[in-house]
Amino acid sequence: NETQLRLDAFYTFN
Amino acid sequence: MLELRLIQGSLLKKVLEAIKDLVTEANFDCSATGFSLQAMDSSHVALVALLLRSEGFDHYRCDRNLSMGINLNNMSKMLRCAGPEDIITIKGDDGTDTVTFMFESQKQDKISDFEMKLMDIDSEHLGIPDAEYQAIVRMPSAEFARICKDLGSIGDTVVISVTKEGVKFFTRGDVGSANIVCRQNTSVDKPEDSTVIEMNEPVSLTFALRYMNSFTKATTLSEVVTISLSSELPVVVEYKIAEMGYIRFYLAPKIED
Predict the structure, then answer these.
(1) Are B196 and B184 in contact (CB under 8 A)?
(2) Is the ipTM value over 0.90, yes or no?
């Protein structure tokens, strides 16, 4: 089984 | 005051068709640099970044930075009313809640104005620093689109692996599995038909095909697609827009539980 990561796990909000 | 005149208006039509299914609402930002957009899909898994540089426009006037909140479906409806050869001008003003799209036929014998309501959108800009990628694959965009479409009929996810042998696309579903390998191929006369692999380290990542297939709607914008991969980062799928800029899609990977 796989989990979909979100972009905010990699980048921060400005 | 904002006035952006684009001779090749079809580019703007294609850009909208490429992003409107991924993102429903977004702020278009206008500055001296150009006309840009950054927006995430509603689940924050994918992001689109668009830049159309000011130099690429026939006429570009942007007195001060302006952000226009736009429903992309509505903008797409309006741009579909422009002919394929039409010149498109985007006009806006500070303090108004509308934007006007003007379409001029090549012969200047038909001029249409479409005024669209703007909306307030809370923008959530992500800071995306420049990164070194473990592998960068350049390949014909139509080939990449074909692979994503074919694999999407078999499975939900694609494993993209780059080794010195080439780039491998793998999926598995209820009916079976599929494995497509593209080897480096630079011996063709047309560079846009080449597959070029720059690899610092082998890398293998898993992505949702639903998003990849959505990105390939940008195929009409560029003959070449660039796929940048690193094990610690979202993939970047980039379509260059000739002499104007780019459309980049970022997609977070899936990981094994």
Answers:
(1) yes
(2) yes
